[in-house]
Amino acid sequence: MQVIAFYILAGVAVLASLGVIGQRNPMHSVMLLIVAFGAFAGLYILLDAPFSAVTQIIIYAGAIMVLFLFVVMLLNAHTEDDMVPATIGPRTLKMGVLLSILLSGEMAWALTQIGQSAFSTDPGAISSISSVGHIGSVLYSTHAFAFEVTSILILVSMVGAVVIAGRPRRER
Amino acid sequence: MILLNHYLVLSGILFAIGTAGVFLRRNLITILLSIEIMLNAVNITFVAAGRYHGSVDGQIITFFVMTVAAAEAAVGLAFVIALFRHRESLSPDAFTSLKW
Predict the structure, then answer these.
(1) Which of A42, A45, A88, A160 makes a 20 to 30 Å CA pair with A12?
(2) B18 touching A (Cβ < 8 Å)
């Protein structure tokens, strides 16, 4: 059962991700990426991580993708990019394909270096890592400093986004 | 029986897809989407490794990665809007003024 669910979700994730980079229309790319994020959330549930699955749906599919959709609709640039075929030069294409193959080869080599590692099936350990309360207590004690720094990061990026995307000064 | 290796292979495939998207696509929005795919591939590795070691640290770092991804998306899309306003284009080849 778990094996079938894993292969279905993994297949959906890979196909949707391939669709994201294969689409000409950014709108379709964003929609396919939401499908891929749903599959990722399913994989997190298979990994006994319901907290990550829910944040994946709420933050990624709910917030970040809506931001992307807003920008795609705001710029309304897909028609223009369709008319001028945005091709890349043969040299760039060759370099890109070469680098991607090199990266895949490196990762395939690294993956052959690890042995077969089965997940533990101890129910105590599973309930401990899937408990949101436990995650919260570790987050606010061990990782409290990183958590606070994250709030500064969010503030800075918020102000930065407003300053960068704001109206140019001469038009005021 | 699903092993840790299955998740690592899946994550590697997705990361390679994201990298190929960054290298091969000529649209700033699609490039940002490819970066999101790469971040998510890494997240799967973290959660699977956390499950394997029986610790919640994998899920916590996933949470931080999502936060950073949200910040990155906000700033990146702000740049896309600002660049589009200047050049009326989304192709990275249109923004080569700083290239020597």
Answers:
(1) A88
(2) yes
Contacts of A81 in chain B (CB under 8 A): 27, 90-91
B23 vs A71, A80, A100: nearest CB: A100
What are the 10-residue block averages of pLDDT along chain A, 172 residues in total? 90 93 87 94 92 92 90 72 57 81 86 80 80 90 93 94 80 52
Do the domain assignments include residue B37?
Answer: yes
How many C-beta neighbours within 10 Å does residue B72 have? 17
Domain containing B75 — which CATH number? 1.10.287.3510
Which residue ranges form the domains of chain A, and what is each CATH number? Answer: 2-90+126-171 (1.20.120.1200)
Helix (H, G, I), strand (E, B) or coil at A115: coil
Sign of the alpha-carbon torsion through A103, A106, A112, A115: negative
Residue B1 lies in a domain: no
Number of inter-chain CB pairs under 8 A, A vs B:
229
Q: Does A49 touch chain B (CB under 8 A)?
A: yes
Check CB contact of A39 with chain B, cutoff 8 Å. Answer: no
Residue B3 has phi, psi (to 5 degrees) of -100, 170
CB contact under 8 A, A129 and B34: no
What is the ipTM score, two decimals? 0.90
Residue of B nearest to A126 (CA): B54
Identify the domain containing residue B73 by its residue range. 26-89
Residue B60 pLDDT class (50, 70, 90 cuts)? very high
Q: Structurally, how many domains does chain B consist of? A: 1
